[in-house]
Write a structure and sequence with these properties.
single chain, about 625 residues, alpha/beta, six-stranded parallel beta sheet, 26 helices, about 50% helix, binds FE(4)-NI(1)-S(4) cluster, binds iron/sulfur cluster
């Protein structure tokens, strides 16, 4: 794949890829080429390295071994491999959630003054859910609440409190199937236990345990992360911003925040406005300090502060290759190990900040809640000092930048649709019931160099909105569509079907709503629960005319998200390659067919974005029919 048009549809990325080629700098696309052909056993899920009698592999053509040394067959091996990925994804989101709760407890104890309680109403609502008297002073509520939230992770008895947010019927189904999530850590540990050599050999049971673990992420770790971040960092409200590599500025000190946990980047935002640091930047010849984000950290600071987004997952290397980045500070998750080498080709300083995620030889400025602001200032100072080392001749910032609107939450959807004084989901439900809207879609997830960058996200989303499906987005998917101009209200006129257009114009929203980072997929679950509560669209999440999709996924976290969507009743389409399960026909059939009858949601795999959209639309239409709703208004 030497042709940049095949690598990405994004013009800014294409431009930097050309630069990389000219300067012989290798990126993920080149490394993917070096990996060809990728391991066929791995792709099929038929390689097992779980014990030291192996590694074993099953011959997919039925000519060699049919079972591993222990006797495990293709179904067991593929299901165990998949289940382990669910556990890892759940761990990542949930560990993030736990760290945020720790910050809340430090705030409550008065051990940090860098953060506060910014959304008191949300704090009180959460307190009530956890049976805490919401009339107490907010510090005391925070103290009690953080204790209860931490207990959700280590809980030994009972179920996760947030399960109660799901419709009654869903809760009952989870109970019946024995997949109601209990303690978050417990679900991860139990899933890992059952996948070790010689424990669970029933692929269906492994998937059930996997779903319970995934639910402990969606309705546990991720939901906690979202809600507590809103409490200590403030709940997002609709906000304008800019996106793509063009947000990097020629004469400014450019600092890129990358990763997932916003507690640090929040301080970077604050420090970038520090007058002394600004003065220092000017002394060093810069016009100012410019902060931009990559991946989900970007989404977090965009949603709360309108900080520009430099790009999504596949643009992390490209941002550095512009030659204009003084510092890239990273926290956890989705940070390519290749960054170190790319940074070495330029003056860019890579800085790690989390003890969980380090690179050998890379500057590490440990970030702790107690020294948060100081650490952020120190990093920005380093960036300012590095400005002089920039080689101006090697700077090449693409011009492309696009406007977007972000900051939609489940609460905001209440307000914008129902009005500030009569916040309600009724107008949304009525729009679906009347057929003005066909339904809803959640389109989420990563980039993957196996697919033309951003093409799957945007082609799919365009097809959905053309068919009057309101799209809710998070993660790198939202960034992809934002770059193509789909996240501005004006996009409704150009791309949306007439019904969706009417709604967007009436309330002034884009046809594609940006709900935040990947842990904020929990906002989609909560919004869907409100829809059921409002009435008229069935009794369970699986009744809603809605579907989910991760068109360019790569991370284990995407698999976990897929599973908690499916286990919540959502029909979910995955692009790229399937979950490495094709080596087991039984398992693949189970995921794509039988699961639908068990949990109401199931998986579908496709490698064509238009087909994916059509699959989703067909599903939405089927649900409309089951609810006996009117015909879609403008077909
Ligand atoms: Fe990572 Fe969250 Fe995927 Fe993007 S979408 S590549 S997980 S940053 Ni979450
Ligand atoms: Fe082989 Fe079984 Fe060990 Fe896996 S668990 S490596 S299949 S012997």
């Amino acid at each position: 794949m030497s042709n940049v048009e095949q690598k990405s549809i994004d013009l800014a990325s294409q431009e930097v890829l050309k630069k990389a080629q000219a300067e012989n700098i290798k990126t993920a696309w080149d490394r993917l080429e070096l990996q060809q052909p990728q391991c066929g056993f791995g792709q099929l899920g038929l390689c097992c390295t779980i014990c030291n009698m192996g590694p074993c592999r099953i011959d997919p053509f039925g000519e060699g071994a049919e079972v591993g040394v222990c006797g495990a067959n293709a179904d067991t091996i593929a299901a165990r491999n998949l289940a382990r990925k669910i556990a890892v994804g759940a761990s990542a989101h949930s560990d993030h959630g736990r760290d945020v709760v720790h910050t809340l407890s430090l705030v409550a104890e008065g051990h940090t003054h860098d953060y506060g309680i910014l959304d008191v109403e949300k704090l009180k609502n959460l307190a009530q859910e956890f049976g805490i008297d919401a009339n107490k002073p907010k510090e005391q509520i925070s103290r009690e609440l953080s204790k209860k939230l931490l207990e959700e992770f280590g809980k030994q008895e009972g179920e996760l409190v947030f399960c109660k947010r799901a419709p009654k019927k869903r809760q009952a189904l989870w109970k019946k199937l024995g997949i109601t999530p209990r303690g978050i850590d417990r679900e991860v540990v139990e899933l890992l236990h059952t996948t070790t050599m010689g424990v669970d050999n029933d692929y269906k049971n492994l998937i059930a345990t996997g779903m319970r673990c995934a639910l402990s992420d969606g309705w546990g770790g991720s939901m906690i992360a979202t809600d507590v971040q809103d409490i200590i960092l403030g709940s997002p409200t609709p906000i304008r911003g800019k996106v793509n590599l063009g947000v990097l500025k020629e004469n400014y000190v450019n600092i890129v925040v990358h990763g997932h946990e916003p507690v640090l980047s929040e301080m970077a935002v604050k420090a970038s406005l520090d007058l002394q640091l600004l003065k220092l930047a000017k002394e060093k010849g810069a016009e100012g300090i410019n902060l931009a984000g990559i991946c989900c950290t970007a989404n977090e600071v965009l949603m709360r502060h309108g900080i520009p987004v430099a790009g999504n997952f596949l643009q992390q290397e490209l941002a550095i290759i512009t030659g204009a980045v003084e510092v890239m500070m990273v926290d956890v998750q989705c940070i390519m190990p290749a960054l170190q080498e790319i940074a070495n080709c330029f003056h860019t300083k890579l800085i790690t900040t989390n003890s969980k995620a380090r690179f050998p030889g890379v500057t590490h400025i440990e970030f702790q809640t107690k020294n948060a602001y100081e650490a952020a200032k120190q990093i920005i100072k380093l960036a300012i000092e590095n400005f002089a080392n920039r080689n101006k001749e090697r700077v090449n910032i693409p011009k492309q930048e696009m406007d977007l609107v972000a900051g939609f939450t489940k609460e905001i959807i209440f307000q914008i649709l129902g009005g500030r004084y009569r916040a309600t989901y009724k107008p949304l439900n009525e729009a679906i019931i009347s057929g003005r809207l066909r339904g809803l879609a959640g389109v989420v997830g990563c980039n993957n160099p196996k697919q033309t960058h951003d093409y799957f996200h945007t082609a799919l989303v365009k097809e959905l909105i053309k068919n009057d499906v309101l799209v809710l987005q998070t993660g790198c998917s939202a960034i992809a569509c934002a770059k193509q101009g789909l996240l501005i209200p004006e996009a409704a006129k150009t791309y949306a079907g007439r019904g969706l257009q009417e709604i967007c114009e009436a309330v002034g929203i884009p046809p594609v709503l940006h709900l935040g980072s990947c842990v904020d997929n929990s906002r989609i679950l909560s919004a869907a629960s409100y829809i059921i509560e409002e009435g008229g669209l069935g009794e369970d999440l699986s009744d809603i005319p809605a579907a989910g999709c991760a068109p360019e996924w790569m991370s284990e976290k995407a698999i976990t998200i897929g599973f908690y969507f499916v286990a919540s009743g959502v029909y979910t389409v995955f692009g790229a390659s399937p979950f490495s399960t094709l080596g087991s026909k039984n398992l693949t059939d189970y995921l794509t067919k039988e699961l639908g009858e068990i949990v109401g949601g199931r998986f579908e795999f496709s490698d064509d974005p238009i087909k994916m959209a059509q699959l989703m639309i067909n599903h939405i239409d089927k649900k409309r029919k089951a609810l006996k709703l009117k015909q879609v208004m403008y077909e």
